Amino acid sequence: MLLDIRDLKIEARGEAGWTPILHGVDLTVNQGEVVGLIGESGAGKSTLGLAAMGYVAPGLRFAGGSVRFDGTDLLALPDARRAAFRGRRVAYVAQSAAASFNPAWRLIDQFCEGPKIHHTASRSEAEALARELYAQMSLPEPDRFGLRFPHQVSGGQLQRAMVAMAMACRPDLIVFDEPTTALDVTTQIGVLAAIRQAVESYGAAAIYITHDLAVVAQMADRIKVMRHGREVEEAPTRQMMSAPSQDYTRSLWAVREFRRPARELPGGGPVIRVAGVTASYGTRNVLEDVDFAVPSGATVAVVGESGSGKSTTARVITGLLPPRAGRVELDGQPLPPRLADRSREQLRMVQMIYQMADTALNPRQTIRQILSRPLGFYLGLTGRARDERLHQLMDQIELEPRRFLDRRPGELSGGQKQRIGIARALAAEPRFIICDEVTSALDHLVAEGILRLLSRLQDEQGLSYMFITHDIETVRAIADEVVVMRNGRVMDSGTRSAVMDQPRHDYTRQLLASVPQPDPDWLTQRIAEGVR
Amino acid sequence: MTLASLRQIPPTALLGLVLIVAYALVGILAPLIAPYGEAQIVGDQFLPWGGDYLLGTDNLGRDMLSRLIWGARNTVGVALLTTLLAFLLGSITGLLAAALPGWVDMLLSRLVDVLMAVPSLIFTLLALSALGPGIWNLIMVIAVLDATRVFRLARASAMNIMVMDYVEAARLRGEGTWWIIRHEVLPNITAPLIAEFGLRFCFVFLTISALSFLGLGLPPPMADWGGMVRDNAALITFGDSTPLLPAACIALLTVSVNFVVDWLLHRASGLKE
């Protein structure tokens, strides 16, 4: 047994003293085995992952239990001896490679740090090892790749470089903390394949932390489900995927089954039409001849990787970025390209919901203030009428008015904040709402609640949505029509079934094929098909 | 503020608060508690401590204690007024610069760069010799100079807020620039601005004292601590510590304000220790 964590308790410093965040968790990892940790945010996955290296983040402390690594109790060791394990025998791959690399140093210099500190290789040996690992990670020009600075490589490449770095001292155990969460699906699949091959060929054991069920199914031999700092259940991957024993696990599995049935649209002309829009930041064109329409009462999903121009399209529609050519029509009437030239009535019709509810709500205002402003600004509501409407809005987003109206955003959970974002858009009584990645910062269960809410509001109020997302599952769940974008162009568009079920376009096919499936053999098959 | 919350204030900050309040009281009540007038010549020069004149007399035979008390009123009052003015000017321009990128920001920022490029004491000396000494000139010159620092802070903090989605949401709603500054930006940058106010006050206070020491501060016969150090500096050669009293007043207030600011900064940043 390589790693043996017994009854581990970890506490966090809070307002009222130390509060437990891990309530006695066991975790064992055998030589060469990959254990998946899955759960919502706040489940304690990352804390447990770091504890495997005998480390707790600032503000936390070990409160009990033991962490035995290859027979040595890490918690009983002095700091210096514990540090000798880290990087040498246990390595860590963080979620955000961009934030974890030092931008001032070349990749190869950062690679060689570990071997130098732990005296496992000389500089030239370490460099040779780096080239070998870069090649294995399918990085371009492995001989010269290390000479680049972190900002000179793409996100997926950087993540692979970090995996290579973790392997530098040939560790026995690697902790992967959501290594692909920040990546596009088309990039993610390559990184997953690289990680899988690297782990297999070096025979390293791994702890793979993620909130994505389909990903963990590909990577892990055994899965442990966690919630609120406790273990829910643990089983070999295939058994866990086919027959989870706990209700909570089953609810996680069921989330992916939310599907809005295909339906008849109410008809009528399009609410919003984007006609031949070309837009640029400076001299670089970021949108080229983008053309699509949002039918009345429909949800149009705009999908694509980051940098494909989805959000820029939203900026053009809202008037933040006047296009260089083309126009945006609202109900058949052209909208003035610049925000400042639009009438209040035109502004009211087009509302927006943001990805990060944290930054979309002013932390210094109460919910009442946040929602009152659009009511007063657009509709001139005051006093009694405004209060009535406030309560109505809170009912619509399924939050109790009395409990929430006088709180500030900081006192709300992520899902509740997102609901307030929705209420703020509804307050204007718009016809069209742009939803910019509204579920991607949320846990699956919470995200599903938001999708159901948005669907219900659409049915009740005849709203039209433009749903910007990179998540194919979300598209399958709610879209009536789909627009696929890449590099600022529309690659494919049509009804959901036309685009997704029999993809005509190569890129759409590639996009769809990159989405991890819960089937544990999916990645193996994709690698066999030659994914890089 | 309840007694319980008072008890949570760290002792250093509490000491600072008490001293600041004491200074303020002395300054406000100066006409009542000072035994003699500010410019009143009461006896011989350089009389020793004790007797009618608790802390002796100065180089012109004025009561030292009375002048210290009046000095609190003059020096602290002028410093406070100057700091307020600097803040008004600096934060409004800073917020505007952050909210209106483009030529407004460019113009204001470059202007501030030019002002900051000249060492501040030299700039103040130059400006005061050009404008002539006088309370109002003094206040204006120092206020403008310190407003540049406030501008930098207000602009930088406001820029961080301007990129937030809630500001974009307000812009999309059709709100005007001033509304956005007032409702979305200002409430989010008050903490750093308040902390800066304390620090700025110290610097202004020290600048005024330094200028008085150089003879360009408050015009005589007004009592101010910097000038009092200079007037009586000769005593030091005789081993008399009297000239150090006004200096000690300056030091004590500066330290007190810093204690309080430290505590405020700590609370604002939400750091635990």
Describe this structure in words.
The complex is a heterodimer of chains A (532) and B (273). Chain A is of the alpha/beta class and 532 residues long. In chain A, 39% of the residues lie in helices and 25% in strands. Chain A has a six-stranded mixed β-sheet with strand order 6-7-8-3-9-10, with helices on both faces. In chain A, α15 (367-379) packs across α16. The longest helix of chain A is centred in the middle third of the chain and has 18 residues, at 185-202. The relative contact order of chain A is 0.11. The mean pLDDT of chain A is 89. Chain B is mostly helical and 273 residues long. Chain B is built from eleven helices and no strands. Chain B has helices spanning 3-7, 11-28, 30-33, 64-99, 103-117, 120-131, 135-162, 165-173, 177-214, 225-231, 244-269. Chain B is elongated. At the A-B interface, β16 and α15 of A face α8 and α9 of B.
What is the topology?
The complex is a heterodimer of chains A (532) and B (273).
Chain A: E1 3-14, E2 17-29, E3 34-38, H1 45-51, E4 60-69, E5 72-73, H2 79-85, E6 90-93, H3 97-100, H4 107-117, H5 123-136, H6 142-145, H7 155-166, E7 173-177, H8 185-202, E8 205-210, H9 213-219, E9 222-227, E10 230-236, H10 237-242, H11 247-254, E11 270-281, E12 284-295, E13 299-303, H12 310-318, E14 325-330, E15 333-334, H13 344-349, E16 350-353, H14 357-360, H15 367-379, H16 383-396, H17 401-404, H18 414-427, E17 432-436, H19 444-461, E18 464-469, H20 472-478, E19 481-486, E20 489-495, H21 496-501, H22 506-513, H23 522-528
Parallel strand pairs in A: 3-8, 3-9, 6-7, 7-8, 13-18, 13-19, 16-17, 17-18
Antiparallel strand pairs in A: 1-2, 1-4, 4-5, 9-10, 11-12, 11-14, 14-15, 19-20
Chain B: H1 3-7, H2 11-28, H3 30-33, H4 64-99, H5 103-117, H6 120-131, H7 135-162, H8 165-173, H9 177-214, H10 225-231, H11 244-269
The largest chain-to-chain contact, stated as pair and per-chain residue counts, equals: A-B, 27 and 15 residues
Overall geometric form of chain B: elongated
Write down how many β-strands of chain A occur, each being a DSSP E stretch of 2 or more residues: 20
- The helical percent of chain A reads 25-40%
List the total number of helices of chain A.
Answer: 23
Distance between the termini of chain B: 23 Å
Strand order of the largest sheet of chain A: 6-7-8-3-9-10
Biggest beta sheet attributes of chain B: none
Oligomer: heterodimer
Supply Rg of chain B: 22 Å
Residue windows where pLDDT falls under 50 for at least 5 positions of chain B? none
Mean pLDDT of chain B: 87
